[in-house]
Amino acid sequence: MNIELNAEQQRVVNIGKELARDFATRAAEHDRDRSAPEENYEKLKDAGLFGIAIPKEYGGLGVGFLGYSAFIIELAQGCASTANSYNMHANATGTIMQHPDISTSTKKKIAKLAIEDGKLMCTSVSEPNSSSLLASAYTPSLEARKVEGGYTLHGKKAFCSMVESSDYVFLYAHPEGDPNLQASIGFLVPIDKGKAEGVTIHDVWDMHGMRATRSNTVEYDGTFVPDELMLHQTDEFLNDFIIRGANWSFGGFAAVYLGIGVGILNFASDFLTSRLAKGYAQPQAYHPDIRRRIGNIASELHAAELAMKYAAWHSDTHGAGIETFYAFIRAKNTIGQAVANTAKSATIACGASGLMKKVPLERMIRDAATAPIMPPNVDAAADQAGLLTMGLNPADVLPPLKSTETLVAPAVLI
Question: Where does the UniProt annotation place the signal sequence (predicted)?
Fold first, then answer.
């Protein structure tokens, strides 16, 4: 296994570090106002990063998932909301580029939209009333109806990060009348920053953390998608999007949260090495309880980073499959636990002074709150990791909850 970055990957990571320093100067403002960081998206475009998840053969940067994850870890340390939202652009373009059922001509067209035309894209998969514990809750309820020249969309999508800033939305819809709940059509929907006909954005995103992601609910009422933007069809949505696309479907989010954890560690280290308690000549960092907490944070985050790098290397080297999914599900669980523990320990170590609104740690801790619950949450990730570790047959796993008569989707991912 070689997880060293090559020259091009390191160049992109260095750009991420530079952008993070700039984004950090506006992060508090966007968090306070829960405003979209439009200027950050423009700077990402100006830096040539709209092709970060696109292979070189289609004109992209070709840094692989290892290079992308290293970049987004850096970006998240400056503004986690920007990183978490921009990950949706990488999710959309990366998923499309690696999907075997999407034609080469379509991939070239979408790569041109992103790279040459500078179009921002987001991914919208979450359903109203979905649960990060129950994979089947993510099967599309948004309906696609065939009409002359394309399709119309009817229904809602939830948690649509960056949608108001995006030109296109990558999403899945259920074909009208199909009895298979996992039957889905992948579309790239021209949304024109939420101004497309038949699109209503419900401003519901007033959250504890990640406030500037603007992850609002979008309602589609007859929104038209032309045939040429119908990407592919599948009869097994969960396997198609989550298992085969584990790197982009949830690996990218895991890397964002790892970046938040690293940012908390760096801030806490600087904060504690500069604070003197009344009557003492040494900074608080020398206190044995502080040393232990920072040591535990550093150890857990290092393990989480190695888990992410292994999963990224495996994805780049071996491609999609159960083993790659297994690597990412372990990494997601490890990162979720590590970042939650990091936020807790840093809060205790830095004390009340670290929780003042003017201190960046307060925002980072709030942004870290969703690390263990971002789908698949740590319980769902641990469950799947346990199933795969013990070689259990997914068909023999009982549904965790009583389902309605119409719900026939599987209770497990694999």
Answer: none
For the chain, report the end-to-end CA distance as a whole number of angstroms.
Answer: 26
Q: Is the dihedral of CA 24, 259, 13, 75 positive or negative?
A: negative
DSSP tag of 304: H
Split at pLDDT 50, 70, 90, the class of 411 is very low
- Alpha-carbon span 400 to 96, nearest angstrom: 32
Confidence (pLDDT) at 268 = 98
Q: What percent of the chain has pLDDT over 70?
A: 98
Amino acid at position 259, single letter: G
What mean pLDDT comes out for the span 81-94? 98
Residue 371 DSSP one-character state: T
Does any domain span residue 410?
no
* Each residue's pLDDT tens digit, 148-180: 999 999 999 999 999 999 999 999 999 999 999
- Cα distances from 406 to residues 137, 179, 180, 403, in angstroms, run 13, 9, 10, 8
Distances (CA, A) of 323 to 134, 191, 251, 379, 389: 21, 36, 14, 19, 11
The structural domain count of the chain equals: 3
DSSP 8-state assignment for residue 250: I
**Tokens 């789908």 label which residue?**
375
* Dist CA 6 CA 341 (whole Å): 32
Q: How far apart are alpha carbons 278 and 272 in whole angstroms? A: 14
Which domain covers residue 209, as residue numbers?
122-236
Q: Which residue has the tokens 């940012």?
A: 263
pTM of the model as a whole: 0.95
- Assigned token pair, 25: 């100067």
Q: Is residue 276 in some structural domain?
A: yes
| Residue 143 region by backbone torsions, left for phi larger than 0, else alpha for psi between -120 and 50, else beta | beta
